[in-house]
Amino acid sequence: MGSGGPEAGVDLYRDTWLRYLGYANEVGESFRAIVPVSLVWASYGVATAYVTADAVDKGKKAAALQAQQGGGVAKGATLAVVDTFIWQALASVIIPGFTINRICAASLYLLASRTRWPLPVRKWATTALGLSAIPFIIKPIDRSVDFLMDSSLRKLYKRDEKPPTSF
Q: Is 9 helix (H, G, I), strand (E, B) or coil?
C-alpha cells in the first residue's frame, strides 16, 4: 500500500487503516439507494479530508527533505502537495465515486426492469453489488491515474526530481 521504502518508515496515510478513509465515498455511493443523500455527501467529506491530510503530509515531508538537501523548500512542498492532492482526488474520490455511482444506478435500473423483486430487495442488492465492486476497481483506477498524471502534469516537473508522491 505504501510507497516509501523501509528507511521511510510507516506512512500514516498509505500504510495504516487511515488509507481506507479514502474509500469512504465509494461506500457512501454504494448505500445511496438506502440512506439519505446527506450521508452520501458526508462520505465525500470524509474522503476529501483524507485526501487533503495526505497531501499536507506529503508537502511537509517534501519540505523537510528539501531543507536537509539545502534546496527550495517551497517548490518541493508545493509540488508534493499539488501532485498528491490531484492524484488522490482522482484515484480515491472522483473516478471511483463516479464508477460506483454508475454501477449502482445501472444495477438498480436493470433489477427494476428484469426482476419482480420488491424495491427494498433491489436497493439492498444494488448496495451489495456496489460494495463488492470496490476492491475490483481500485487497482485499475490507480494505474490509470498514474498513467494520466505521468503523461500530463508530471511532465512539467524536472526529470531529475523525485516524484512528489513517493515521499
A: coil
